[in-house]
Amino acid sequence: MIDEHIPVSEYRARREKVLRSLKGAVGVVFAGDGSPPLVGQWRPNTHFYYLTGLAREPGASVLFDPKNPDPTRRCVLMLKPRDPEMEDWDGLREPIGLPLRKQTGFDKVVRSTYLPRMLTMAARRSKRLACLDPVGSYMGKVPEDLSIFRKIAERMVGVSIEDKTELLNELRSVKSKHEVAVMKKAIKATAAGFDKVLQALEPGRSEAEIHAVLDGVFREHGSTGPAYNPIVGAGVNSTVLHYNANDQPIEDGDLVCIDAGAEYGRYAADVTRTFPANGKFSERQREIYEIVLRAEEAAIRAAKPGVRFHELDEAARAIIEKAGFGDQYIHGIGHHLGLEVHDASPDAPLAAGAVITIEPGIYLRDEKIGVRIEDDIQITANGSRNLTKAIIKDPDEIEAAMRKAKRAR
Ligand code: GLY
Ligand code: MN
Ligand code: MN
């Protein structure tokens, strides 16, 4: 029932941390609602998934009730009632009982029809309601926990609502050893994909074929597929940051910017490499490539605990600006990586255990030259470790590997 990549004891430990950090306040984390779509997969709210490992329970939630006198009811899994007719369509669901409690690691599992009653009781006990679901933008939907807490506050005197929206972002941004192990598998599948692309890439191929190579190799390595829409941009398309049509021919002299990562055990890899289609960088392509590479390596060297993204950006940007291409580096230096490609991101300096991307680029549309180089970096106690260093990026090594592949064809 829960994904097996992370032990059930770790999910339980995550919930216990939340419970302690709430310091007596009540919290609810919703999975979100919906049903399995025809295209793609239903995905739970990532905070809910992080706390439970449950990926196929729309309508579920976790209630934190730290002041409940019964310790087994301080953290409760709420699951939507069973519907035998829907089970014909979506698959069988478990009855509530000991096997379900054992599998999920919850002492208490109830149907979500109990939520209004149990949450109201919890609010009466605590009088403090803590929002855990962060607001992306005030233009978006009101978070489900905040909207319910407002209903409670309208009906109950003396109840206050507080902001704990950084809590799960902070917890999620420091990866456990199990999480890193799973991410390394995503990276291994990704590395195999890039390796095969180097073997296959030549003028006359299409962006679609390279996309298909990545997809196939990822899956051969146990991945469920790409963690996000892969970008395979040849020629002028290499300069389009989120290009994903991937339907054009690859021509002699093109640079091909490939931004792709496998998903494995729900964790993402996120890697970009830029290769010359014919196996050899032109002088101008190499000039730009080497600036981006130096910038990327400077940012990687700057990565350590206590540093913020803007400082990594400055390290890369100084080199790109000095070379005269500051206005052609038009995006951020990177982001946290984990259950989401753009993962939960606390408003805080990097902590040891974070996994981030570093991905500067230069984009010269008129010259059809787009170069981005992106690695996945683990922040360690004293500095950082490049988790994707096996994926070659030295321009001489790229050319040598492509020469070898050509001879073998
Ligand atoms: N592939 C999306 C990104 O690099 O952020
Ligand atoms: Mn990327
Ligand atoms: Mn990225």
Task: Describe the 3D structure.
The protein is 37% helix and 17% strand. By secondary structure, it is an alpha+beta fold. It folds into 2 domains: 8-172, Creatine Amidinohydrolase, Chain A, domain 1 (3-Layer(aba) Sandwich); 174-408, Creatinase/methionine aminopeptidase superfamily (Creatine Amidinohydrolase, Alpha-Beta Complex). The strands form 6 sheets. It has a 4-stranded mixed β-sheet, covered by helices on one side. A hairpin with a 4-residue loop joins strand 16 and strand 17 (384-386). The longest helix is centred in the middle third of the chain and has 24 residues, at 177-200. Residues 259, 270, 272, 374 line the site of one manganese (II) ion.
List descriptors.
3-stranded antiparallel β-sheet, 12 helices, 4-stranded mixed β-sheet, 409 residues, Creatine Amidinohydrolase, binds manganese (II) ion, Creatine Amidinohydrolase, Chain A, domain 1, alpha+beta, 17 strands, binds glycine
